Amino acid sequence: MGRLPRFETAAVVSSARELFWREGYEGASVSALQQATGLNSSSIYHAFGSKRGLFDAAIEDYLASVVRPGLARLRAEQVDPEAIVDYLATVRELVLDPAGHTLPDGCLLVNTACSGIARDPEVAAVVSAYRSELAESFGRGIAARFPEASAADREHLTRTCVASLVAALALTRVDGEAAAGFLESALALLRRPHPIA
Amino acid sequence: MGRLPRFETAAVVSSARELFWREGYEGASVSALQQATGLNSSSIYHAFGSKRGLFDAAIEDYLASVVRPGLARLRAEQVDPEAIVDYLATVRELVLDPAGHTLPDGCLLVNTACSGIARDPEVAAVVSAYRSELAESFGRGIAARFPEASAADREHLTRTCVASLVAALALTRVDGEAAAGFLESALALLRRPHPIA
DNA sequence: ACTTTTGTGAAACGCTCACTCCACTATAGT
DNA sequence: ACTATAGTGGAGTGAGCGTTTCACAAAAGT
To answer: What is the CATH number of the domain that holds B44?
Structure first.
């Protein structure tokens, strides 16, 4: 019953996600969100309650449409020993793109962690869960690559790889070469025969 | 000639630096800066030209008063082989502080890199130079610790340590334990007898 | 056909933003 | 003492912020 919406929620959230990714939560004004989504503010507030509600939806969409597809091979039942290397090498290519068209704004969630809204406990929990998810996926990739290593060594290597990724995404905007360097050195660790001497 | 200022520039910039660190460039409003510094807006604009001018001064002060003193032992002529370990261990303690009173907001420059103002080329250059400065200092610490390692190995280890620091500072706000974990794993690399097997 | 429910459009809300203006005060040089 | 210069206080600028309101449009259930 009632009038049908003239928009597709998925497309709206996807547009909002792009804007938040580019401009950050504080930097994406509601009027810019109106332009990006094609909805006017009354529809936005009707559908999502607040700018914050749309942001939450955009984060969910980011995880579902950007993060998890990228991690798919690391989340599979059988993990390819090359999967973790391929993942980091792919991100390295993206941040190195000279035109900067592919991954110009780093990671929506890393950017969020460094912004004021990260003081909101719910937002902090989402970013923290994202880091856990990265760590779990990377851990599986590293276990597949170094099956004979100790759990402690794999744990350290996993955290180092996650740190290299987070740092690369944090600095993509200001220095793509440096970001690629972080990933290159993480790859160097993964290309050794054993994780720890 | 002319009336003398009723404030000390150093104290004003230091207060502004704290506010920008806590709230970010966009998040620190001019009226909040008035409260923090004790100056009213006309004095701020007279002395610094713009909010952005005060921000630039705050960044300079951050480098001079926070970053470089911390790196002092790594910038000395003779670098202690323990200096790089001590540095990372100290940061680890700071981000782990349960009350979060010591380093609650990560790094002013990392936060800046993840915000909208990082698209300004001058700001990007300052953050990029900060990363270079970190890398050079860490490189010296690692050369002192692993004098017999190859240049390539030291380079990789340096970048991995810088990445671990940057990632820890990026996530301090949302997950201090995870930030400490990044540093812990970097320390594990440094505590091995040789950087690469 | 009519009621009920829901989405839409446009205008406006009070508020804060970065910034400016100007009269006034205070000092240094002459 | 006077002039030139520079800092201060306070009110005010227009623009933009997130959000709300409300009359109206459109579709589902009876």
So the answer is: 1.10.10.60
